[in-house]
Design a protein that fits this description.
Blueprint (H helix, E strand, L loop, with lengths): L1 E6 L3 H10 L2 H4 L1 E7 L2 H11 L3 E5 L7 H11 L4 E6 L4 H9 L2 E6 L5 H41 L6 H11 L8 E8 L2 H7 L2 H22 L2 E5 L4 E7 L6 H23 L3 E5 L9 H11 L3 H4 L4 E3 L15 H12 L3 H18 L3 H21 L14 H6 L4 H23 L6 H13 L6 H8 L3 H12 L3 H19 L4 H7 L5 H12 L3 H11 L1
Parallel strand pairs: 1-2, 1-3, 3-4, 4-5, 9-10
Antiparallel strand pairs: 6-8, 6-9, 7-8
Helix pairs in contact: 9-10, 13-14, 13-15, 13-21, 14-17, 15-17, 18-19, 21-22
Length: 537
């Protein structure tokens, strides 16, 4: 509805206007009436009209004066002049002062009134649309400038200040601060939501952040990619670092809480250090952006602040040769229990030492390298141990927390161990034998028997014994001993574990029996084999 204010000192004329057309049906409503120009001025703020119908000949303040006042103070309001006199001077003055049209009262009817109101409504609609388009274009230019600015595409300080002035950005000289934010679980959102839904979510988030920034003071924001946005704070002449710290923290806390409360999304925020040279903005953005990598240890919905930390991070941490050998031995023997223990230990160390992000990347790169190396040595296609077609290192980077990285690495190792087992349990084996071998590989470190294996896979023990021997060329117990000896060999090759402990880890519960079985299968005693391994080193 367009709101219409009627200004006429003639009560009968006002009553006639009210009944001349069906106002609501036509898309208009009378929001108020005034008896003269001065009375109308008093109603403007209260009634907020879109259109004012003005009689020219009124006491106190006539129509010409009111139209001039509206043109100066309320240029968006459309005015329609009315007069009982066919006087060209009134027409000329009213149009000169901004009246949309001029109608003679004695010729006014429903058709003429509705026609001029629709003209006014159409003009208002066109102007609103144009203003919206201009505003949207300006917003696009602002966001594009902020994005290019923080990414270092505009390095000249003079050019930066000129763009700030032209775009009307509240980034005056003085202390500046950069905040970088990243929506949590965005990769999952892309799987759950349509492109339109994601666009709406980002637009809603941007509207919410900008509303809070308008309320809190001089700051602007822009998305720099699908999931990440930046906020630039400017504090002008304010020099109190405590005030700035509290202001930025309060603002970010409001944004964080609002995103979670109203959009049901969380985000991590990185609060950069203060600086006062606008040309340095990309440098401080990169620094704050890197700080977001702390999310991998700290988790989702966190706020990080750049600050000098006594002692800093441990700097450099990577796997040693012993770690690699132990992991390779566990994978090759299919001992998932040991694999999990080794990985748990590595990632526990990462968390306790608060290892920096670059070191985490190196450690994970080494763990991926171990899997790739074993796959190549075993003639397994490297791509088969990964779930997706993505480059493994890029796939790993999609993990948001250290727990997700650990889970992903374990998944890779589990698939590799399964492929190694499948390679050994070749197509010539029956399904029953393959299941028995899988049971042995996962449980050889325990005290297992043929009956347990048969019960586990749902078979008769006598039948399983016969089929297993036909497929493998050896009995169940003999095969178990071969797997245990193989594990003992790997442990002697790759660790400094004492022999008595190796006996237990390999699944033997009798030291003498271990020596006997080892000598029979390996051709040398365990001590001789361990000595050979030490010489090889």
């Amino acid at each position: 509805m367009f709101r219409v204010l009627i200004v006429d000192d003639d009560f009968t004329a006002r009553a006639s206007y009210r009944t001349m057309i069906d106002w609501h049906q036509s898309g208009f409503e009378i929001c108020g009436e005034a008896t003269n120009g001065q009375n109308a001025v008093q109603l403007l703020e209260q009634e907020n009209p879109d259109i004012v119908i003005v009689d020219m000949n009124m006491p106190v303040m006539d129509g010409v004066a009111l139209i001039g006042y509206l043109a100066e103070h309320y240029p968006d309001i459309k005015t329609i002049a009315l007069s009982g006199y066919d006087d060209f001077a009134y027409v000329k003055e009213s149009l000169k002062h901004g009246a949309l049209d001029y109608l003679l009262k004695h010729k006014l009817d429903a058709e003429a009134l509705l026609h001029v109101l629709q003209l006014a409504g159409d003009k208002i609609s066109r102007e609103h649309k144009l203003k919206k388009q201009i505003s949207q274009s300006r917003d696009i230019l602002r966001h594009d400038f902020i994005k290019r600015l923080v990414q270092g595409e505009i390095g000249n300080a003079a050019a930066i200040r000129e763009n700030i002035r032209e775009l009307g950005l509240p980034l005056e000289a003085g202390y500046l601060s950069v905040v970088v934010a990243a929506l949590d679980d965005y990769r999952l959102m892309k799987q759950r939501f349509t492109r339109e839904e994601l666009h709406h979510l980002r637009a809603s988030a941007a509207d919410m952040v900008e509303e809070i920034l308008r309320d809190m003071g001089n700051a602007v924001m822009s998305f720099v990619n699908e999931e990440k946005f930046v906020i630039l704070f400017c504090f002008g002449s304010i020099r109190s670092e405590l005030y700035i710290y509290n202001h930025v923290s309060t603002t970010v806390n409001r944004i964080q809480a609002s995103l979670q409360r109203y959009l049901n999304v969380t985000a991590c925020f990185s609060l950069g250090r203060l600086f006062n040279q606008i040309g340095d903005i990309s440098k401080f953005y990169r620094s704050a952006d890197e700080l977001l990598n702390e999310k991998i240890i700290a988790g989702r919905n966190r706020i990080f602040r750049e600050a000098a930390q006594p002692g800093g991070s441990p700097g450099f941490f990577n796997l040693d040769l012993q770690d690699e050998k132990q992991i390779m031995a566990a994978i090759k023997t299919g001992n998932m229990g040991q694999i999990q223990d080794y990985i748990e230990e590595i990632f526990h160390k990462i968390i306790v030492l608060k290892v920096n992000y670059k070191s985490i990347q190196m450690i994970c790169g080494e763990l991926i390298g171990i899997a790739n190396r074993i796959a190549r040595e075993s003639s397994i296609a490297v791509k088969d141990i990964y779930n997706t077609k993505d480059i493994p290192y890029e796939e790993m980077k999609k993990c948001e927390t250290i727990a997700e990285v650990k889970h992903w690495i374990l998944g890779v190792y589990e698939r590799l161990a399964a492929l190694l087992l499948a390679d050994e349990s070749s197509a010539r084996y029956t399904e029953l034998t393959r299941k028995a071998i899988e049971f042995i590989r996962h449980n050889y470190a325990k005290d297992i028997s043929l009956n347990q294996a048969a019960e586990h896979i749902g078979s008769n023990s006598s039948y399983l014994s016969r089929i297993f021997k036909d497929d493998c060329g050896m009995g169940f117990v003999e095969y178990v001993n071969h797997v245990r000896v193989q594990q003992a060999k790997y442990l002697m090759e790759s660790t400094d574990i004492k022999l008595k402990e190796i006996v237990r880890l390999a699944g033997f519960n009798n030291y003498t029996y271990f020596f006997k079985v080892f000598k029979m299968i390996a051709g040398v005693t365990p001590l001789e084999y361990k000595g050979q391994c030490q010489k090889a080193l």
